[in-house]
C-alpha cells in the first residue's frame, strides 16, 4: 500500500520526503523492521520508540512516523510528524490491514474479573451455532479452530489488526475480545469498530500502572464512551459502577443482574461442585459452572447472544453444554476425597468471590485451605489485602510465590503478611516454594475439605528474574494425587 494512502487515517503535522512509496508492513519494534516497512516511534511505558529510529532505518525502514523529527534525517527515508504516535498507530494499522472490523462483528469484554470466561464462552457458543469465530484472550487467541499463542490480554495495535485481518480473510463472522484497561489507556484499540461491549465488574487492580482507582475506572469507561450508535453496551447492574460505565455511551444499553429487574435476570436455584441449576428470564437451565460470579458471567453470555439475534431457547440449550475455562474455578477431585480448585484469582475481590462461592457450596461441611501469592513488580497495595481476605475466609492459608519476576519472593510474602492481625496470623503459614506449598495443603486436607490454589489458573510457568520456568498448578496436583493412598 502507498504511504500516502495509509496516512489518510491520521492527522499529519509535517511530511519530509516522498509520500508515494510502497509500504510493505508496519512495525513499532525496530528489531522487527524489514525493508520497505513503516516504523512508528511510540512513547511506551518502558521505552521511547524515538530512541530506536536510527536502528529501524538501519534495518530498512523506508518511512517513519514520529512526534519529534530527528536532527539528522536520512534523505532516503520519509518522515511523518504527528502530535501523538500512540494515538496514530492503531488507526494506521487498521487502515493498512484493510479495516478488518468493518468485515466482522467485534464484541469487546472489559472489567476486572470475568473477561476471559465471557469472551471464551461466547466464542465456544457461536462456533456451536455454526459460525466461523475469532477469539482474542489472555489464555490464547483463536482464528476459528487455529490456536495463536498470546503474551498479553490485548495485543499491540499491529498484532491486533493483523490478527483481525486474518479472521476477516478466513470468513469469521464474529470476534470476541478481552479489552484490558492498559489497551484502552494506551490506545491499542484505536481505529477498531466494536459492534458491542460487555462490562463485567470493577474492583482494585493494576494501580501500579493507573496509580488511582479513579484512573482505572476512567480507562474502562472510555471504552463504552467510544462505542458507536450502532453498537450495544451490556452492563452488570449488580456492580455499583455498572451504570456509570454506560452513562455517556452512544450505544444501545442493556443490563444483566442476579439481584434486580433488568433485561437479563438470573437466579441460582441449586448449586454444588459439579454445577448449578439457574433460572434465567423465567426459564430453568442446568449449567456446568459453580458460584454466583459464574452465574453472573453466564448471564452476560446469555444476554450478548440474545442481543446478537439468537433465540433464547437456543442460547439456553447451548449454555447447558458449555464447560468452564481452564484455570477458572477448575475443580479436581482427590482420591483421598477432598476437592482442589485452581483459579486465576489474583485480586482481593476475585479471592473474595471464589472463597465465598466455596463456602456457599460447602455449607460448613469441610475446611477451606487457601494457597495464595502475589505477583512481583505489580500493585503492592493489594498484597496485604489479598492475605487478609484469604485469612478471613479460610481455615488455613499458605502464602507462597506467584511470578515474583524481579522481586525476591520472601519480600512479597512479607508484604502480604503485613496485612494480618494476630488472630489471622495463627492460621497462616508461609512457604516460598509453590510446589511445597501445594503439597503441604494436600497433606493438611481431609475428606470433604476444599483447597483453593489461587493466582495462576491457566498459566504454565513461574516468571523469575526475567525467565519463565515451567510450572502448572494442575500438573502439580495430579502428580500429588497419583501418589496418594486411598
General description of the model:
With 486 residues, this protein is an alpha/beta fold. The termini are far apart. Its cofactor is Mg(2+).
Number of strands: 24
Average pLDDT figure: 93
Distance between the amino and carboxyl termini: 67 Å
SS class: alpha/beta
Architecture blueprint of SSEs:
Blueprint: H1 3-6, E1 14-16, E2 25-27, E3 37-40, H2 53-58, E4 63-66, E5 78-81, H3 85-96, E6 105-110, H4 115-128, E7 133-136, E8 141-143, E9 146-148, H5 157-169, E10 174-178, H6 181-185, E11 196-199, H7 207-210, H8 213-225, E12 232-236, H9 242-245, E13 252-257, E14 264-272, E15 275-280, E16 283-287, H10 292-307, H11 312-319, E17 330-333, E18 339-343, H12 348-362, E19 368-372, H13 382-392, E20 396-399, H14 409-417, H15 422-425, E21 428-430, H16 434-444, E22 450-454, E23 461-464, E24 467-470, H17 473-482
Parallel strand pairs: 2-3, 3-4, 4-5, 6-10, 6-11, 7-10, 11-12, 12-13, 13-14, 18-22, 19-20, 19-22, 20-21
Antiparallel strand pairs: 1-5, 7-8, 8-9, 14-15, 15-16, 17-18, 23-24
Helix pairs in contact: 3-5, 4-10, 10-11, 12-13, 13-14, 16-17
